[in-house]
Recover the amino acids of this structure.
DNA sequence: CACATGACCTAAC
DNA sequence: TGTTAGGCCATGT
């Protein structure tokens, strides 16, 4: 899984995203220390070998739209996953 | 080192 | 509001 240090930071930040919460690629880029690498961040997710262990489905664009998802369900399931996790977070409160 | 690719972002038409 | 153009960064060839 440990590919490039950059990807590692990206996946790490994504894994740090709390359930029900969504982060934009730019936010992640800033979190890892590369506020201008929003594109590379998306690439890291796309290159992420564990689209399931990594909640890349919580990562969305600045427009609020979903970017993509190489895991099960695809970009469509991505929104479903977000809604489900959002529901979980709401239930926990 | 240079070129090509991509789940992006911003601005302009 | 929807599409097009340019720019940015990391990775792979």
């Amino acid at each position: 899984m440990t590919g490039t240090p950059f990807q590692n930071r990206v996946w790490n930040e994504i894994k740090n995203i709390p359930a029900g919460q969504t982060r934009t690629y730019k936010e992640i880029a800033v979190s890892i220390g590369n506020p201008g690498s929003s594109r590379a961040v998306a690439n890291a997710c796309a290159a992420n070998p564990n689209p399931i262990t990594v909640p890349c489905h919580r990562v969305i664009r600045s427009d609020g739209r979903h970017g993509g998802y190489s895991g099960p369900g695809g970009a469509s399931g991505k929104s479903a996953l977000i809604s489900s996790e959002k529901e979980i977070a709401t239930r926990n409160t």
